[in-house]
Amino acid sequence: MPNKHFCQGPHCHEQITQDRFLKSRGVIRGRYAYATLDQGPNQYGWQAPDSDKYFCSQSCKFTWLSQNMENIEHGRPIEFIRHRRESQGYHKVTEEHEGWQGRPYITNSIKRVDNRTELD
Ligand SMILES: [Zn+2]
């Protein structure tokens, strides 16, 4: 296991992207955070902010903030994500389309098996 936290983004494990998709089990998985726990500065002296040790992206960071600031204000505990979250029921779909001047082309996409959500 990498020296990383799992991304704390509330919906990280529901975003349909190729790098989150595990084809063998048909699940979308949450990502690891962007930075390792002990990551130092890079060769140019740039240091990732500490918040990057908890989130994979700015988007996940801001989603977490929006969802949890009220909890922080009221002193309510917020669950820390310590296991890899998953969303089930996805599969990879390969489709052939007719393109420019009738030349076929292939697209790959990840879709929910029950077709409730279809995102390419
Ligand atoms: Zn994330």
Structural features, described:
The protein is α+β, with helices and mostly antiparallel strands. Helix content is 13%, strand content 22%. It has one helix spanning 58-73, and strands at residues 21-22, 27-29, 86-88, 90-98, 104-112. The strands form two sheets. Strands 1-2-3 form a three-stranded antiparallel sheet, with no helix packed on it. The chain has a two-stranded antiparallel ribbon with strand order 4-5. A hairpin with a 5-residue loop joins strand 4 and strand 5. The longest helix has 16 residues, at 58-73. It is extended, with a radius of gyration of 18 Å. The chain starts with 20 loop residues before the first strand and ends in an 8-residue tail after the last strand. 16% of the residues are buried. The mean pLDDT is 92. The site of zinc ion has 8 residues, from loops. Residues 7, 9, 12, 31, 55-57, 60 line the site of zinc ion.
Low-confidence segments: none
| Range of helix content | 10-25%
Q: Strand content of the residues, in percent?
A: 15-25%
Secondary-structure class = alpha+beta
Distance between the termini: 30 Å
Q: Identify the strand order in the major beta sheet.
A: 1-2-3
The count of DSSP E runs of length 2 or more, i.e. the number of strands, is: 5
The small molecules bound here are: zinc ion
Count of separate DSSP helical elements: 1
Question: Which word captures the global form?
Answer: extended
In angstroms, what is the radius of gyration? 18 Å
Order of helices and strands: EEHEEE
**Main β sheet profile:** 3 strands, antiparallel
**Mean pLDDT over the residues:** 92
